[in-house]
Structures are given as C-alpha cells and as structure tokens.
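User: Let's play a game. I give you a shape written as tokens, and you guess the letters that built it. Ready? Here's round one.
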C-alpha cells in the first residue's frame, strides 16, 4: 500500500515539474539585454529606420499598394482635414498625420499628394 501511495506522489510531482519547468527556462535573447532577436533585422540605429521601414515620399503618378487603398484608410470627413471632395472613382487615403493621397480606387494611381 505504501509503495502505491509513494508511486502516486512521485507521478504527481513529475507532472507538476513538467508544467512548471518551462518557467525556469532562460528568457529570450532580447529580454536579456542583448538587443533584438536575429529575425528583427539586427541592431537598430536611432538615426535610420530598419531596412524596409523607410517612409516613401509618394508623388503624383505613383501606384499605391492595394493593401493601402483599403477602406480603413479612406478619409470621409474632408472638411475636417481641409480637403476638397474627391471626384467620382477617387478617394482620399490617409498615409500619416500629415500626408493625404488622392487615389484612383480602380487602379491605385495617386492623382494628388498633400503633405501638411
């Protein structure tokens, strides 16, 4: 009887350790103060954004990627942003707090770019 009881306690303790053991693991590389993980593009420089994060200076005639022509970026309250009403088939798309693009929805071509 004591052997069965001891076995039960041992199995319970082993199961508990299996659940708690991951908490004893070392924190991730970047949480140890050693910089961002490798997949984050290496060390970050305060003077320049990481590769691929540079802001694009959009101009008339450029084609906006379809992901950025999405309805969630459309500006519907033109007066609030001091923009004129877009023509048929065109929409104002907000790129940042200071950049608004008038885009032809069918093609994604930029008709006008305002930087305020």
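Assistant: Ready! My guess for every position:
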């Amino acid at each position: 009887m004591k052997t069965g009881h001891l076995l039960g306690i041992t199995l319970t303790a082993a199961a508990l350790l299996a659940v708690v053991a991951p908490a004893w693991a070392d924190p991730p590389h970047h949480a140890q103060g050693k910089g961002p993980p490798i997949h984050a593009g290496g060390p970050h420089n305060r003077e320049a954004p990481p590769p691929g994060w540079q802001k694009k200076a959009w101009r008339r005639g450029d084609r906006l990627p379809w992901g950025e022509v999405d309805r969630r970026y459309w500006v519907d309250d033109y007066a609030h942003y001091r923009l004129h009403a877009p023509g048929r088939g065109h929409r104002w798309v907000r790129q940042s707090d200071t950049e608004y693009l008038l885009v032809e929805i069918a093609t994604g071509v930029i008709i006008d770019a305002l930087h305020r």
